[in-house]
Structure formats: C-alpha cells, structure tokens
C-alpha cells in the first residue's frame, strides 16, 4: 500500500485551519490573523512585516494583506522605527490585546483536539515525528536552495 503523507498532512492542516476559522469568526478574525496577533503579543520588540514573513514562511504580499486587514479592523497599527525610519514596526492596539486570551484559548483547544485520545507518550512521539519530518524536508530544501544560489553565481 502506498503512503501519501503529503496529502494527509494537507487534510490535517485544512481541518485544523477550518476549526480555527470557525472559532475565531466571532471576533472577526481568521486563523492566520489570530496567529499573527498572538505572535505580536509575544514579541519582545515590535516586529516588522519581514519578521512575520520569516516566522510564518509567508510571502510579502500575503503578509501585507493580513496586516492591512488587521489594521483596517483596528487590531494593530504601524509606527515608524525611531532608530531606522525606513522600518515600520507593528504594534497591537487595545482591540488586538483584548482578544488575545480568547485567541490563546482557541489555539490551545484546537491543539488539544488534535491529540485527543492520544496517551501522553503518543502525544510526545507525534510531536517528535512532526519535528523530524519538518527537519527532513527543510534540510532537503535548504540544500536545494543553497545549490541553486551557487549555480546562479556570476
């Protein structure tokens, strides 16, 4: 029997994302927006859009759209960095801070649902397997990207 882990992971992600979207809709947020707000709340210094791109492995246009919608809904605002005026820092507004505990509860509930019925040992193994699989794919991609850059050198 052939195994198609990529497809299964895609299904798992889709169901998890839909569950998050459904839970966050009452706050007028999507799962992606909720994750960005949670990230902003845990950042020691206000990040810029590039930090979010790197953290979530998202493209610049995707992050720009996410932040633009959150700004229009008054969850966050941009402020020019005092040290480098070319950089716009992203700050949570009171409306964004007010929903953080609910966002955290939704994230924790969805993660708990994900491993429902697992023993503690199975949950730890699942965590280990996911991290190892990510590392396997990441190492292959990193090697590919490194070689591609070297091939395009002048």
How would you describe what is shown here?
It is a single chain. The chain is mainly alpha-helical and 154 residues long. It folds into two domains: 22-114, Winged helix-like DNA-binding domain superfamily/Winged helix DNA-binding domain (Arc Repressor Mutant, subunit A, Orthogonal Bundle), CATH 1.10.10.10; 119-154. The chain has seven helices and two strands; from the N terminus they run H-H-H-H-E-E-H-H-H. The relative contact order is 0.10. The model has no long low-confidence stretch (mean pLDDT 90).
Topology:
Layout lengths: L4 H20 L6 H12 L6 H8 L3 H13 L3 E5 L7 E5 L1 H5 L1 H15 L5 H32 L3
Antiparallel strand pairs: 1-2
The CATH class of the largest domain, by name, is Mainly Alpha
Oligomer: single chain
Q: Approximately how much beta-strand content do the residues carry? A: 5-15%
Task: List low-pLDDT spans.
Answer: none
């Amino acid at each position: 029997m052939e195994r198609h882990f990529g497809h299964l992971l895609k299904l798992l992600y889709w169901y998890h994302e839909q569950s998050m979207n459904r839970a966050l809709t009452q706050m007028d947020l999507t799962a992606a927006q909720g994750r960005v707000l949670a990230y902003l709340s845990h950042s020691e210094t206000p990040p810029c859009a590039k930090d979010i791109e790197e953290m979530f492995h998202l493209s610049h246009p995707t992050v720009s759209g996410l932040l633009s919608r959150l700004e229009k809904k008054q969850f966050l605002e941009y402020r020019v960095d005092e040290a480098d005026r070319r950089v716009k820092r992203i700050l949570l507004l009171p409306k964004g801070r007010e929903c953080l505990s609910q966002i955290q509860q939704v994230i924790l509930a969805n993660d708990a649902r994900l491993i429902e019925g697992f023993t503690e040992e199975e949950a730890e193994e699942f965590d280990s397997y996911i991290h190892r699989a990510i590392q396997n794919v990441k190492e292959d991609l990193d090697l590919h990207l490194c070689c591609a850059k070297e091939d395009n050198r002048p």
